[in-house]
């Protein structure tokens, strides 16, 4: 027996072969082998650069099956170069160059690929000399010498799970450079995404049926994979309009415009939660001053909470410890023509509430907030303190149900512990991260990005074709 080590058997390629590009989420592609070309080329469209100038990236989409423009795979990659390439007909074109793994029959190696529109070509990909390893021999008179793949893979349930994580372009709609905004940028960029902070009020919109657009600083905003709304209470209406425009374009929004508006309208929010049988303090509302006594009677005896509908961070929330005090506060609010709710005061909560952070239908963290000395309100903005807390199953279920009422994928649900079970005070569609990350030590922002990546992960997208003729 010879002691000479086995030398690798040369791979034989015909002039056309089935290949995979796993880094791009393309499991099956027919490629033409062309030793006359130096660099490989992939059919790509909607090519768009993004990311920092020091390390730019490119987004593009691929139609892997010839003649099937309804099947779309979104891709992204780091740009290696921009190179002038001469096509087979002699035309020269500047193309972006990326690197990706080429896989054939269990063997894989990195190759350089240029991106170009090959819609007029029979093959979606061309393999040039640089992609062919030294031990590959070409049989120019034959094809499919390697195992054949099938386009059927694009129609299987496993396709989504097999998709690689790609760099995303994300917009944070925020007017403030605060902890939450900075964390969203920091966490996103650490994952390789490009995160851009956009002042919501400086967006303006082109509203039309065929090409709805969002503009900013004199330019049309690019396609974003997702937007994260951080809409302040003072700009709720306009912020919701901007989000609706992104929704019209087809951009994924962490929280919907409808959910944000509903959660900000305290009267409507309580009506929705009551309809969904979510536990909350007894609540009453009336417009006429003649109904003050009846209004208080619906809620119960003093002490009572009188809460402005537009209140945020504990502002406009008053504790009336006696019936006379409650009447005075109600009269004062009516004199200001302000809309308000009256609620019973949950004494056993003792100035404490629980903030549950719900992301993607799960409670990812919870903290107990205690009001400052002498203050029944537990808001951290008003000097309250917070610490991590274990919540009960009933509290967890209540928080999840409350967020679901408004169809919010990210929500801060504030609830009280009462003798009759958890009572929801408010559902916040733009919760801050500083207090809860600091008190629990959990990476809340990371949990949010986990959800975003799962929701917008590229998978084959089949565009709807126009309906055929009726059989009737």
In words, what does this structure look like?
The chain has about 475 residues and is α+β, with helices and mostly antiparallel strands. It folds into four domains: about 150 residues, Acid Proteases (Cathepsin D, subunit A, domain 1, Beta Barrel), CATH 2.40.70; about 100 residues, Rossmann fold (3-Layer(aba) Sandwich); about 60 residues, ATP-grasp fold, A domain (Dna Ligase, domain 1, 2-Layer Sandwich); about 110 residues, 2-Layer Sandwich (D-amino Acid Aminotransferase, Chain A, domain 1). It contains ten helices and 29 strands. The strands form seven sheets. It has a seven-stranded mixed beta sheet with strand order 2-3-11-4-10-9-8, with no helix packed on it. A hairpin with a 6-residue loop joins strand 5 and strand 6. Helix 3 packs antiparallel against helix 4. It is elongated and about 95 Å long. It starts with 10 loop residues before the first strand and ends in a 10-residue tail after the last strand. The C terminus is likely disordered. In the C-terminal section; belongs to the RimK family. InterPro entries: Asp_endopeptidase, ATP-grasp, ATP-grasp_RimK-type, ATP_grasp_subdomain_1, Peptidase_aspartic_dom_sf, Rimk_N, Rp_bS6_RimK/Lys_biosynth_LsyX.
Radius of gyration: 29 Å
**Unreliable runs:** 463-472
- Derived from helix and strand composition plus strand pairing, the structural class reads alpha+beta
Indicate the percent of residues in helices.
10-25%
> How many separate structural domains?
4
- In terms of DSSP E residues, the strand content is 25-35%
The major pleated sheet works out as: 7 strands, mixed
Just name the CATH architecture of the largest domain.
Answer: Beta Barrel
CATH class category name of the largest domain = Mainly Beta
| Distance between the first and last residues' Cα | 77 Å
Number of helices: 10
The pLDDT mean sits at 84
Name the CATH superfamily classification of the largest domain: Acid Proteases
**Structure summary, number of beta strands:** 29
Which descriptor suits the 3D outline? elongated
With strands numbered from the N-terminus, the spatial order across the biggest sheet is 2-3-11-4-10-9-8
The fold-level CATH name of the largest domain is Cathepsin D, subunit A, domain 1
Keywords: ATP-binding, Ligase, Magnesium, Manganese, Metal-binding, Nucleotide-binding, Protein biosynthesis
GO molecular function: ATP binding; metal ion binding; ribosomal S6-glutamic acid ligase activity
Family: In the C-terminal section; belongs to the RimK family.
Cofactor: Mg(2+); Mn(2+)
């Amino acid at each position: 027996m010879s002691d000479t080590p086995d030398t690798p058997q040369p791979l034989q390629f015909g002039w056309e072969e089935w290949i995979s590009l796993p880094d791009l989420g393309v499991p099956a592609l027919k490629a033409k082998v062309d030793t006359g070309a130096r660099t490989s080329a992939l059919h790509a469209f909607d090519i768009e650069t993004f990311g920092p100038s020091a390390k730019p990236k490119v987004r593009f989409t691929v139609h892997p099956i010839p003649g099937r423009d309804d099947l779309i795979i979104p891709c992204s990659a780091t740009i290696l170069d921009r190179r002038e390439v001469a096509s087979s007909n002699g035309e020269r074109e500047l193309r972006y160059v990326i690197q990706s793994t080429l896989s054939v029959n269990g063997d894989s190696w990195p190759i350089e690929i240029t991106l170009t529109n090959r819609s007029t070509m029979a093959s979606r990909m061309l393999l040039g000399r640089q992609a062919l390893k030294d031990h590959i021999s070409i049989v120019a008179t034959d094809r499919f010498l390697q195992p054949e793949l099938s386009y059927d893979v694009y129609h299987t349930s496993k396709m989504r799970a097999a998709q690689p994580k790609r760099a995303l372009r994300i917009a944070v709609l925020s007017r403030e450079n605060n902890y939450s905004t900075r964390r969203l940028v920091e966490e996103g960029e650490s994952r390789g995404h490009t995160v851009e902070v956009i002042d919501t009020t400086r967006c303006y919109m082109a509203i039309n049926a065929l090409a709805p657009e969002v503009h900013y600083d004199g330019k049309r905003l690019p396609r974003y994979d997702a937007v994260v709304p951080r809409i302040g209470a003072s700009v709720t209406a306009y912020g919701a309009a901007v989000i609706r425009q992104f929704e019209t374009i087809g951009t994924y929004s962490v929280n919907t415009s409808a959910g944000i508006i509903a959660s900000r309208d305290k009267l409507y929010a309580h009506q929705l939660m009551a309809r969904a049988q979510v536990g909350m303090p007894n609540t009453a509302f009336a417009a006429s001053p003649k109904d003050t006594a009846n209004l208080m009677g619906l809620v119960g005896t003093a002490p009572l909470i009188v809460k402005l509908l537009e209140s945020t961070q504990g502002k406009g929330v008053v504790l009336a410890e006696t019936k006379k005090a409650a009447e005075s506060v109600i009269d004062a609010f009516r004199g200001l023509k302000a809309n308000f709710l009256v609620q019973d005061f949950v004494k056993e909560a003792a100035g404490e509430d629980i903030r549950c952070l719900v992301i993607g239908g799960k409670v990812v963290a919870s903290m107990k907030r205690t009001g400052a000395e002498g203050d029944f309100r537990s808001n951290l903005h008003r000097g309250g303190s917070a610490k991590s807390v274990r919540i009960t199953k009933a509290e967890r279920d209540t928080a999840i149900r409350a967020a679901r009422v408004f169809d919010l994928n990210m929500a801060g649900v504030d609830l009280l512990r009462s003798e009759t079970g958890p009572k929801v005070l408010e559902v916040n569609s733009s919760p801050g991260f500083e207090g809860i990350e600091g008190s629990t030590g959990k990476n809340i922002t990371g949990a949010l990005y986990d959800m975003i990546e799962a929701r917008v992960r590229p998978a084959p997208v089949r565009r709807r074709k126009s309906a055929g003729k009726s059989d009737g």
